[in-house]
């Protein structure tokens, strides 16, 4: 059992090293991909947030005017 255990350890170690390299590679790729899509999403979100800010600002201005008329 000792002999087979050593062999299994070496085998497991080798496959783990290979998996680490493989995972590292795919993780790097995923990081770049995620980063890319995140940058795009940031720009998109920023754009929509700016639009929403303008829209909200506009509707708030409208509501203020509307409320102002009712108060008088």
Description:
With 72 residues, this protein is an all-alpha fold. The chain has a domain of 25 residues. Helix content is 97%, strand content 0%. The chain is built from one helix and no strands. It is rod-shaped.
Please tag this protein with its features.
72 residues; mainly alpha; 1 helix; 0% strand; rod-shaped
Layout of helices and strands, plus pairs?
Layout: H1 2-71
Summary?
This protein is mainly α and 72 residues long. It has one helix and no strands. It has a domain at 48-72.
Taking all Cα atoms into account, the compactness measure Rg is 29 Å
Strand content: under 5%
Helical run tally: 1
Largest sheet, strands/sense/barrel: none
**Apparent shape:** rod-shaped
Distance between the termini: 94 Å
Low-confidence stretches: none
Query: Mean pLDDT across all residues, rounded?
Result: 75
């Amino acid at each position: 059992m000792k002999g087979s255990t050593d062999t299994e350890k070496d085998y497991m170690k080798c496959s783990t090293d290979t998996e680490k390299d493989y995972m590292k590679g795919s993780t790097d790729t995923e990081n770049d991909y995620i980063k890319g899509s995140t940058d795009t999403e940031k720009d998109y979100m920023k754009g929509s947030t700016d639009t929403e800010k303008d829209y909200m600002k506009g509707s708030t201005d409208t509501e203020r005017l509307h409320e102002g008329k009712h108060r008088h």
